[in-house]
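Quick one, tokens below. Sequence please?
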């Protein structure tokens, strides 16, 4: 949405006006199209999307990203406070980041609660042929028989 706002604000602007506004280099490289980059001109890269394969670390990263986005929207709102047509969509986006932060926080608490639960394991034996084949493979690799002497299946 921010890209669309920027595009709408620069559409139809002549190159001389863009140069006066300090956007000459950007215009030279990208015209009035949107090129995702930081305010300092650093292009977006997938390395900004951090994931570790750990649900708690990933959710913490998501929480941080939402707060960074919220802070960016607040700064953009401060820069554009004279233009309600720009400020209103930015406020909407900022509020959306707040809600996302809340939902990621709820997800984090859910994951932490689930990981803190006491774990228990059941050893069941079923007559399911696929399960028996899987169990046989497991037994061969791990030298383990999940069927006890009371079991009536053919997996002993």
């Amino acid at each position: 949405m921010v890209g669309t706002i920027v595009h709408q604000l620069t559409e139809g602007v002549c190159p001389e006006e863009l140069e006066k506004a300090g956007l000459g280099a950007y215009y030279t490289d990208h015209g009035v199209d949107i090129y995702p980059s930081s305010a300092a001109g650093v292009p977006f890269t997938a390395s900004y999307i951090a994931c570790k394969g750990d649900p708690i670390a990933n959710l913490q990263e998501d929480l941080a990203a939402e707060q960074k986005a919220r802070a960016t929207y607040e700064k953009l709102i401060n820069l554009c406070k004279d233009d309600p047509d720009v400020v209103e969509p930015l406020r909407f986006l900022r509020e959306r980041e707040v809600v996302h932060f809340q939902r990621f926080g709820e997800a984090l608490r859910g994951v932490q609660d689930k990981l803190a639960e006491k774990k228990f394991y059941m050893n069941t034996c079923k007559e399911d042929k696929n399960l028996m084949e899987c169990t046989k493979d497991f037994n061969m690799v791990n030298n383990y028989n999940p069927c006890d002497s009371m079991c009536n299946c053919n997996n002993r």
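The chain has six helices and no strands. The radius of gyration is 28 Å.
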